[in-house]
Task: inverse folding
């Protein structure tokens, strides 16, 4: 089975994000990076598919040259080959999806996996856009997946905790949600393999962004709160404030 | 034409609340742009929409839309986006909207401003504002051509218009056999369970409630009772979800759901940056924590210092009394 998993390098979730002087990007000083959380479920799903059906996992990432670190982590977890589509600027999901789709078209692919959302841009759309550009079926927010006989049985999380069941022919695009699996940490053997793996770097050749940034701004500050009181004695005053001051009940 | 096309999601024969909010937002933006709002209904009848802000209501029906299909819905929305020549295409950022609208935008060769909390006109052109980095920053964007955006539930108000709009059928143009992914079956979640992402009031529990299979049993029952008393959905911190105390669908935060209810009550939650990221867009935040230095108090509008054992049941009692009048 030929498996492609697309990953993103994103600021860690504890990063403090402040607009930079250009007003369009964030201030990069002091920011650490990691594989965007949900992509780890996609990597795990890819490795499990390989372990069950044999085959090869190619990890594909569009990002800055520094993203070789994240790509190597994916190799250390158990992916086989790695490719970085180099683009040094912050790109929207349309530009990213276009560059990824153009590359995936030239790679053998029975299934293409993504995280369902990124922790930074939070567009939750790159996977579905790639599917559309490649003319493939897509199922997003997968929480269970079984592959057999050239097809996949997938459950996706829908509104109100409901699960929608799909049966799609491969090749297909699936975006992965927490709950699909528990992702592994790299082991020693993986880390050694990752050191030796050649990460192919090619320019991303992404088209212009589909949405253009006017500005990145801090969220409106919240007004200072107040401590209503201590213990059960404070509840009546809290309810009064919620009703009369905040007017939310 | 500066019209705004709004996909209106139906569930069980009725438009969902978030979709009516999107239609409201669409009609206000259309007025500002000098056009009108056009509602697109797929697999519903379009009745009752006439007075929710739409100038026209387009309805796609037939075998091809009997069951939800992301590629099928994307084709219809992209077709109507082209046919109407709308300046803006909107949908609500519900699990369905998040799923297929990205496909539709790509089909239209457009980008997507996802999960927006504000729409406005800047420099004569429509602009969308969306939280990024889990709400640690806001990104304002425009599009070179048609602007596609999905709107966060509860961030926009519904609209009411006096005149009922005309319902016009539109052709689907393909049959069910050409669909690539179609819902085969829907497995119910917990019956009648409110989704944290869509609820107007959320009560969340953290590690401070302790293990529901052990000493925390009463605490979680108390939390459910509080939620029931005020019609709230129950949310949770990641610590609680990772411990297996609550399903992951309940997780609020940067790697869980982003919520913006009118009231968010955090019980026994410390307020880690990843948790704050998911709920700081709430209109009013209440925190109950025994540690007066807990970071949750920095974002809370109202705080009570105390244990969940003591405060949660007392609060349920006080709410019930107040709601009885
Ligand atoms: C990549 C990544 C992603 C993450 N994503 C998320 C996310 O999406 N959502 C999320 O929530 N977290 C997330 N986290 C985890 C986050 O960093 C915190 O660990 C987590 O939010 C803590 O949960 P908590 O507040 O329930 O527990 P704790 O931090 O342990 O806090 C428990 C609180 O309960 C109080 N308490 C204890 N006993 C009582 C009592 N009897 N009565 C009243 N108060 C009491 C304590 O004073 C304390 O403040 C993420 C972390 C990482 C690394």
Result:
């Amino acid at each position: 089975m030929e498996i492609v998993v697309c990953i993103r390098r994103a600021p860690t979730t504890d990063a403090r994000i402040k607009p930079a002087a250009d007003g369009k990007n964030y201030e990069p000083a002091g920011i650490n990076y990691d594989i965007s959380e949900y992509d780890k479920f996609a990597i795990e799903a890819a490795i499990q598919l390989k372990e069950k059906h044999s085959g090869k996992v190619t990890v594909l990432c569009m990002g800055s040259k520094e993203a070789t670190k994240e790509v190597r982590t994916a190799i250390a977890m158990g992916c086989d080959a790695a490719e970085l589509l180099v683009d040094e600027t912050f790109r929207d999901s349309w530009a990213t999806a276009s560059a990824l789709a153009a590359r995936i078209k030239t790679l053998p692919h029975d299934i293409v996996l993504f995280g369902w959302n990124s922790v930074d841009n939070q567009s939750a759309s790159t996977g579905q856009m790639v599917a559309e550009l490649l003319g493939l079926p897509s199922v997003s927010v997968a929480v269970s997946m079984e592959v057999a006989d050239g097809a996949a049985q997938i459950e996706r999380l829908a509104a109100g905790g409901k699960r929608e069941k799909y049966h799609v022919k491969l090749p297909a695009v699936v975006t992965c949600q927490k709950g699909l699996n528990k992702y592994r940490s790299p082991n020693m053997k993986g880390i050694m393999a990752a050191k030796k793996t050649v990460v192919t770097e090619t320019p991303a050749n992404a088209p212009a962004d589909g949405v253009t940034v006017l500005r990145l701004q801090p969220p409106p500050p919240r007004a200072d709160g107040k401590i209503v009181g201590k213990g059960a004695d404070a509840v009546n005053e809290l309810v009064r404030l919620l009703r009369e001051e905040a007017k939310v009940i | 034409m500066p019209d705004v096309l709004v996909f209106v999601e139906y569930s069980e024969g009725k438009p969902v609340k978030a979709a009516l909010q999107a239609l409201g937002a669409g009609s206000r933006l259309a007025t500002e742009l000098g056009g009108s709002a056009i509602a697109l209904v797929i697999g519903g009848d379009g009745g009752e929409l006439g007075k929710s802000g739409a100038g026209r209501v387009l309805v796609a029906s037939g075998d091809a839309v009997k069951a939800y299909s992301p590629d099928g819905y994307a084709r219809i929305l992209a077709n109507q986006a082209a046919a109407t020549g709308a300046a803006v295409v909107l949908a609500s950022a519900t699990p369905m909207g998040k799923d297929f609208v990205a496909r539709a935008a790509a089909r239209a060769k457009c980008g997507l401003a996802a999960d927006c909390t504000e729409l406005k006109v800047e420099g004569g052109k429509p602009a969308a504002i969306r939280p990024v980095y889990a709400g640690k920053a806001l990104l304002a964007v425009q599009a070179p051509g048609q602007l596609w955006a999905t709107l966060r539930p509860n961030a926009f108000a519904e609209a009411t218009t006096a005149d009922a709009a005309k319902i016009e059928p539109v052709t689907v143009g393909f049959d069910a056999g050409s669909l690539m992914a179609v819902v085969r079956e829907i497995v119910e979640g917990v019956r009648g369970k409110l989704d944290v992402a869509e609820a107007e009031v959320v009560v969340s529990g953290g590690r401070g409630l302790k293990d529901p299979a052990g000493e925390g049993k009463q605490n979680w029952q108390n939390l459910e009772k509080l939620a029931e008393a005020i019609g709230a959905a129950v949310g949770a911190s990641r610590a609680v979800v990772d411990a297996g105390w609550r399903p992951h669908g309940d997780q609020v935060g940067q790697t869980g759901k982003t919520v913006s209810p009118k009231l968010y009550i955090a019980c026994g939650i410390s307020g880690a940056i990843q948790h704050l990221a998911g709920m700081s867009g709430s209109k009013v935040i209440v925190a109950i924590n025994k540690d007066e230095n807990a970071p949750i108090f920095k974002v809370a509008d109202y705080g009570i210092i105390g244990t969940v054992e003591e405060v949660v049941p007392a609060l349920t009692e006080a709410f019930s009394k107040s709601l009885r009048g």
User: Anything to note?
Assistant: Residues 64 and 177 of chain B are 8 Å apart (CA to CA).
